Structures are given as structure tokens and as C-alpha cells.
User: Which sequence fits this backbone?
């Protein structure tokens, strides 16, 4: 299938695609776009259509369904004040689950799991995320300081980035924590982003320490 055919195929889905909801942070929109883009590529390669898409990808804003989806990815203690925002599930060739919580316009917690035949390494997953940002010409944070810390997840050392920066548009202080770790059904990505005035490092550490995939 040519590049033009793929573009026409992509456009043919129209409003059948799950649309980003108002109030989503830039990072959440990028992650959602990454997962939906991967799904579209699968459909193009497999010759799927709108009927298949509508049954393979679903989105929910029901708080209880989002909490259940979160627990199916990993056990975490969601920080106080963060409310369920939306959940997405996809089951085509790639299996993806994503749950997002928000506390105010910019404070966001995302937990996402992707299962791809053949698997993805941590570096490949990071590369996919960064590439999606570049393709969308978006920079969700201007980094001032970056620190890598090690935490034990299920007894194994895992790396998490603690990033301090500013919002590219408002120049307001922003803090972000993100990390990747394997789960029983694929790689899991966790991202916590908060405005500088709401940042609580101790709370972020407790969130990471609460993670379990067993």
C-alpha cells in the first residue's frame, strides 16, 4: 500500500476514531496519538476497516471502569486529589491499555501497558515516545534538570527519571516523573506530571514505591 493510499485509509476512519478529550495535557495527547497511530498501522497492514476498528478500540470516562483498567495493568496507590479522567483499551495485533488521572488542568498521572508480538525493550519504548513527540512537533516540557533514580519494583531495580523544567508556552515550573518497567503482559510506562506549585516529591516517591505487577 502506497503512502497516499495509507493517508486516504487513515482519513476514511473520520469520526470513528477516539478523539482526545478537552483538558488533556500535551503528554497524554501524545501517548494517545502514539497508541492510536500504532493501531491504524495494524489495520492498514491487515486490511481492516471501521467495523473492526470500532470493536478493537474502546474509550471510557467511567471512573469505576478506569480504576478496574488501572488495576489490570499494575497495582498503584493513586495520589490523593487525582481523579479518573479516561481509559483506553486496544486489542488488534498490538494490545494496549492506558488509564489517565488528573488533578486540575495540568497535573496528570498516566499508566500505560503495551504488548507487541516480539516484545519491546525499554530503549525501544523510550525511543517510540520521543519520536512521537518529534513527529508532532511538540515539546511538552523544557528540561532544566534531569535526575535518574533507582527504585525496586517487585524486588528488581528499575530506573525512573525525575525532571524539572518549564512549560514551553507559559514558562511556568513543571515537574515530571516517568519510568518503564516490565509487567506480566508487556512493558508498562508510568508518567506523573505536576505544576511546580503542586509538586510534592515525597508523594511522587510513595507512588513509585507502591507499584506492584504481581
Assistant:
Amino acid at each position: 500500500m502506497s503512502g497516499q493510499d495509507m493517508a486516504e485509509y487513515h482519513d476514511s476512519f473520520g469520526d470513528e476514531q477516539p478523539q482526545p478529550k478537552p483538558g488533556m495535557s500535551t503528554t497524554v495527547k501524545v501517548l494517545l496519538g502514539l497508541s492510536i497511530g500504532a493501531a491504524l498501522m495494524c489495520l492498514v497492514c491487515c486490511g481492516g476497516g471501521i467495523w473492526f476498528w470500532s470493536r478493537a478500540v474502546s474509550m471510557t470516562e467511567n471512573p469505576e471502569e478506569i480504576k478496574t483498567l488501572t488495576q489490570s495493568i499494575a497495582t498503584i496507590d493513586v495520589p490523593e486529589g487525582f481523579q479518573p479522567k479516561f481509559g483506553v483499551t486496544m486489542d488488534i495485533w498490538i494490545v494496549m491499555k492506558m488509564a489517565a488521572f488528573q488533578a486540575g488542568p495540568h497535573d496528570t498521572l498516566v499508566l500505560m501497558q503495551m504488548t507487541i508480538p516480539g516484545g519491546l525493550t525499554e530503549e525501544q519504548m523510550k525511543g517510540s515516545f520521543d519520536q512521537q513527540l518529534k513527529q508532532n512537533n511538540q515539546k511538552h516540557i523544557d528540561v532544566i534538570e534531569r535526575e535518574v533514580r533507582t527504585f525496586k519494583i517487585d524486588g528488581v531495580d528499575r530506573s525512573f527519571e525525575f525532571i524539572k523544567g518549564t512549560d514551553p508556552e507559559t514558562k511556568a515550573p513543571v515537574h515530571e516523573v516517568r519510568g518503564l518497567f516490565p509487567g506480566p503482559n508487556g512493558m508498562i510506562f508510568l508518567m506523573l506530571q505536576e505544576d511546580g506549585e503542586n509538586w510534592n516529591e515525597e508523594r511522587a516517591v510513595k507512588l513509585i514505591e507502591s507499584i506492584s505487577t504481581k
User: Anything to note?
Assistant: The radius of gyration is 17 Å. Residues 142 and 166 are 5 Å apart (CA to CA).
